[in-house]
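Appendix B. One record, verbatim.
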Amino acid sequence: MPSTTINELRRGDKPEAPPNSYEGLKRQLEGSKHEFLPLLGSQANVDAFVRVVLNAVLANPALTTCNRRSLIAACMKSAMDGLMPDAREAVLNVYNTKVKDPQTGRENWVPMAQYLPMVGGMIKGLYESGLVSMVDAAAVFEKDRFLFRRGDAPVLEHEPTSEDDPGRVKAAYVVVRMTSGELKREVMFRRDIEAVRAVSKSGTGEASPWVKWYDQQAIKSVIKRAAKQLPRMDRLDRLIAHDNEAIGIAGQTGLGDIVAPAAPGVESLAFDPSPTVADLTGAEVVKEKEPVAARTSRPRPKQSTSPAAEGPAPPPPPMGVTYAQLEEAMNAAPDRDVADQVLDRGRELPDVEREDLARLYETRFSD
């Protein structure tokens, strides 16, 4: 028996729970409630948040084995966004991340927790803007009856099947009614959804949100596309940025199906106080070549202006880049889906530059 435990027993103290145990985590969260209070606004909210986190850990015991500081950081980010990690508004996921020990030089797989906004959280962000009175977002399955027509009199009809096996997801849509009465609709068919998945560095793998919650990822993708039609909403913008970061679209380190925070100094996390992998483990993140996987995406349309050079599609630029970098990336975008990701990065630009980037987007992809 360790001497520290023996000494505790001699003094009559209760031995401390192992750091990776449920009780150890519960004790740590209880002792950190004061840190959550400024983010959640009231003690009742903090108590409810901690209960939800502990329930999430009971539902997913793998969270007790992950790096503890990464789990606390994920909880803090969820609290910053005002979302409960209850699998409806947000979820705490576990990824195995390869890191190099700075002392031994050995590479090890370390389970890390990551915060991921879900559909309920995105919809909550829309409602809490005060600009939206109704949101209807859903996935469409192969056996559903679905009709969507654009034009002067747009039509969107969805009749879900009652069969036990509805088939694969074939589309996702969102309808947003503004408080002004204006109605916004957006639809993404599977080819469009797969194109978004293709630029996500966490598109495959056992822990990938695309594998575990494909319908949720599809609905979030169409909400993010619809956001381009809506007035700017700071909270929704932040949720979109955090979701892109989590699925590996915001310039994060690519480790196949593993999403790791960028190393210190990377511009993509300049706005984010959460600790990085290096901060959490004291180790270097090892970059690995992303495995090639068969992915379905629509053919790249030919563009009449500023044709992109042949070769792999350039990755969307990270958060925090300048307008000049975004303009260059937009001109180099080979298709609308990559351009959509570039346009998402521009949501943090000043209004004038953001409008210029949107005009460039429309010029290149007006058809």
